[in-house]
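Supplementary material to the annual report.
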Amino acid sequence: MIAIRKFYYGDYGESKNGTADISSSNKTKNEWPLWEVFIRSKQGLDHKHAGSLHAADAAMAIENARDVYTRRMEGLSIWVVESKYIHASNPDDADALYDPANDKAYRHPTFYNLPDAVKHM
Amino acid sequence: MEKNLETIFQDKIDNEIKIEPKDWMPEKYRQTLIRQISQHAHSEIVGMLPEGNWITRAPSLRRKAILIAKVQDEAGHGLYLYSAAETLGISRDEMYDQLHTGKAKYSSIFNYPTLTWADIGAIGWLVDGAAILNQIPLCRTSFGPYARAMVRVCKEESFHQRQGFELLLTLSKGTEQQKAMCQDAINRWWWPSLMMFGPSDDASPNTAQSMQWKIKRFTNDELRQKFVDMIAEQVKVLNMTLPDKDLKWNAETKHYDFGKINWEEFWQVISGNGPCNKQRLDTRKKAWADGAWVREAASAYAEKKAAKQSMHAA
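Predicted assembly:
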């Protein structure tokens, strides 16, 4: 049996702990691709992940995102990207990736004790 | 190793750390969530049908615009939830398939007919009111995508309940016929709304495990009691009554006592023998089949456009 993969957001390739593997794509052969939706809620703010949806192409994905995610003025700008193009870090690597930051308290301003007489710093 | 992963998983849950799609999770947790989220999604989608019935017959343009907005919201809620379920490894088509073949359940309430305009008010007030009580704790459910979807749903749901109550309030101040229509709708929707919370705790096999995994935060009976206490007060504002002769305030428990639920009816409706089960599923299946050419045409168009683009690039 060949494992055919379907991509979900945050998917990161083969892993024994992955939950998004399914062994057959028969059931999805007619499905429109999955898109991730990012919305800027206000001029000056970042686009933020809002959710996902299915659409045949990018134009339809933006139209659907307008209907599904911005019915109450939640957005002024929409980005869509096909979910299969998103690459993500593996949670199994979390220790190796993020632990080294833990013991570098000197990167924070509160690490430095200065006399109260010093103002505006 | 397996035990270790499971301990880490339960530790996260106990410490209120959300589980995300890529994290390790017990297979049973995944399956429980797929079942619960997809059934929830199906309920939103099928839930459009009883109300959609009345869009063309709404008594004013104002009511019509409100009802269209509400039904559109339900579609949106279904889509948020389907997406959340998809992060667990089930495809949209599989879920549709489960709904259309009758393998998946949806809320039993939507198998009751909407006979009069007052039913639209009763659905908003009672059915959405019951749904909100279920959904608010789900905003803190342990699976991240489900919790995020529920936050969005809850934000939108509040208007649904308020418009329903306002609709009934208007009827309750109307002519004798309008008042009677209002009372009749309440009479028919009250008991099915109570059943929406699901079987009582001792007959609900999934509750204990779901509580430990913090998928559920309150038991069915706890939420049902909360609902009764809430509605028993609100109905007074409408000058209407609830169809339960055993309903009365219990000063000792500080809750309303209420009559026995007809669980036989609940199981009958759940297993396909409700007044509208067949009609609802047939409508869904027809909509899906009628839309097939649209889905195919859009895919074909996208493919053609992509092919043209790669030709230009070459």
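The beta strands of chain A are 34-40, 47-54, 77-82.
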